[in-house]
Design a protein that fits this description.
The chain has helices spanning 10-21, 34-44, 52-58, 71-80, 125-131, 143-156, 168-195, 201-226, 230-233, 236-249, 254-268, 271-278; strands spanning 2-6, 25-30, 48-50, 64-67, 91-94, 112-118, 136-141, 159-162. By secondary structure, the chain is of the alpha/beta class. It folds into two domains: 2-163, Rossmann fold, CATH 3.40.50.720; 170-278, N-(1-d-carboxylethyl)-l-norvaline Dehydrogenase, domain 2 (Orthogonal Bundle). Strands 3-2-1-4-5-6-7-8 form an eight-stranded mixed β-sheet, sandwiched between helices. Strand 2, helix 2 and strand 3 form a beta-alpha-beta unit. Helix 1 runs parallel beside helix 2, helix 7 packs across helix 8 and helix 11 runs antiparallel to helix 12. It is elongated, with a radius of gyration of 24 Å.
Length: 286
């Protein structure tokens, strides 16, 4: 198999490296910024840093064209190559968790179209190389594209599931909640510590150990059983103490605390606790 990559970001570069490692030939990489392209080629260890003209000239040599640009650039990338010569057997893919493969259908005469998304947060190239082989991928495309994508997953040795294109936005939202919003919650915890002068490396490490322990419990026994704390105990006196402190020192985070409390009450099935969250903590002059 011969592959061309459009986009020289973390995921695309890591995927290129893993594909090369699996025996695939990387013909080249194209990116608008030449320096990024060269860096990607150096990390992959194979291929040519294509100019735009070279990309278009070499497309028909590839079995697979991977578009690994940001979501906002995928359609533009597909349009750029729409008039290029494709041979029978070319496949076109993107790696967006949000967008359907239909966005690739802008005149390109490929044999099949598909999306190939890893359920993973890739912070840099090294982490991508380490984490992507452990990830679950979701595949969505036309019939030929999905068949080819399954073979690609087999070559990489990764787990995969097919997804209906209608469900991709909700699937992507699930990933954002679990990854991006977890980061926000941990940052909120750090802000609470900082406000009382305890934003120290040891305490940050303590928070991370707490999170790791919680994740381990979720993995072993599921969210419902892993939940601990005042909401589970029905200890609203503690909750009220939290509320007073947050409103005094960090009022901008009060709404977030209340919202999380209500949904955590739903998780426990404690309707009385949820009611208290919904009807507590008004303004002092109320």
């Amino acid at each position: 198999m011969k592959v061309i990559i459009i986009g020289a970001g973390r995921v695309g570069t890591a995927m290129g490296y893993l594909l090369k490692k699996s025996g695939v030939t990387i013909l080249g990489v194209y990116n608008r910024h030449v320096d990024s392209t060269r860096k990607a080629i150096a990390k992959i260890g194979e291929g040519k840093a294509f100019s735009r003209d070279e990309l278009l000239e070499n497309l028909e040599q590839a079995n697979l064209i991977m578009i690994t640009t940001p979501d906002s650039q995928i359609k533009k990338a597909a349009e750029m190559i729409a008039d290029a010569r494709f041979k029978t057997g070319n496949y076109l893919m993107h790696m967006s968790g949000l967008l359907a493969s239909d966005i690739l259908r802008v005149g390109t005469k490929a044999a099949g179209f598909f999306s190939f998304h890893p359920l993973q947060a890739v912070a840099n190239f090294a982490e991508g190389v380490r984490l992507l082989p452990q990830s679950v991928f979701t595949i969505e495309g036309d019939r030929r594209g999905e068949k080819f994508a399954a073979k690609l997953a087999g070559r990489l040795g990764v787990r995969y599931h097919f997804i209906d294109k209608r469900h991709k936005p909700l699937y992507h939202a699930a990933a954002v909640v679990a990854s991006n919003y977890l980061v926000t919650l941990i940052d909120t915890s750090y802000r609470f510590l900082r406000k009382v002068g305890l934003d120290k490396p040891e305490l940050r490490e303590g928070i991370l150990q707490l999170v790791k322990g919680t994740l381990s419990n979720i993995e072993k026994i599921g969210p419902e059983q892993a939940l601990t704390g005042p909401v589970v105990r029905g200890d609203f006196a503690t909750i009220e103490t939290h509320q007073r402190a947050i409103r005094e020192f960090l009022p901008d985070y009060y709404e977030l605390y209340q919202l999380l409390g209500r949904y955590t009450s739903d998780l426990t099935g404690n309707k009385e606790m949820k009611f208290k969250f919904e009807h507590s903590g008004g303004n002092d002059d109320e």
